[in-house]
Specification:
This protein is an all-alpha fold and 151 residues long. The protein is built from five helices and no strands.
Length: 151
């Protein structure tokens, strides 16, 4: 007798990876900030490399997530006046992610090392993004948990 197994949907995998990479990004970002104040340049540099690798993976996962939800984004741009509270938070998360990505890429390409003011701006944007992403994750945790238990 064959047992039916339910496959995990690719979007669920992307969403789960986004949560893992988002947490890892926030953690490594805080470690970079801490290392810049209290540890040497080599420690700061090591955390920076890990942070970049994690964020490249997070950027790819977010691209796939946004691609899947492209119809929602298109509807937002068509009718900005009738956004629900949930949509406003989601849109803010998206915009903060874009700001963090742009400032992070600019830092990667143009910064001269630790302790820059641009790095501080990126850090503050990252903290705001982490707080909103945590709320976004908590609101959707039941869906992720359901996806983990359904097999």
């Amino acid at each position: 007798m064959k047992t039916k197994t339910k496959r995990i949907k690719p979007l669920f995998i992307v969403d789960l990876l986004m949560a893992v990479f988002g947490f890892a990004s926030a953690y490594t970002g805080i470690e970079i900030h801490y290392a810049g104040h209290f540890q040497g340049h080599s420690v700061w540099h090591g955390w920076s490399v890990v942070h970049v690798v994690i964020n490249v993976a997070w950027l790819i996962a977010c691209f796939l997530h946004c691609k899947h939800h492209w119809a929602w984004y298109k509807s937002i741009f068509k009718n900005m006046t009738s956004l629900s509270r949930k949509s406003k938070v989601t849109l803010t998360v998206s915009l903060l992610f874009a700001a963090a990505a742009v400032t992070g890429i600019c830092l990667l390409l143009f910064a001269e090392g630790q302790g820059t003011h641009d790095g501080l701006h990126h850090y503050v944007i990252g903290l705001a993004l982490a707080a909103l992403c945590l709320g976004h994750f908590i609101k959707r945790f039941a869906i992720l948990r359901k996806g983990l238990t359904k097999r």
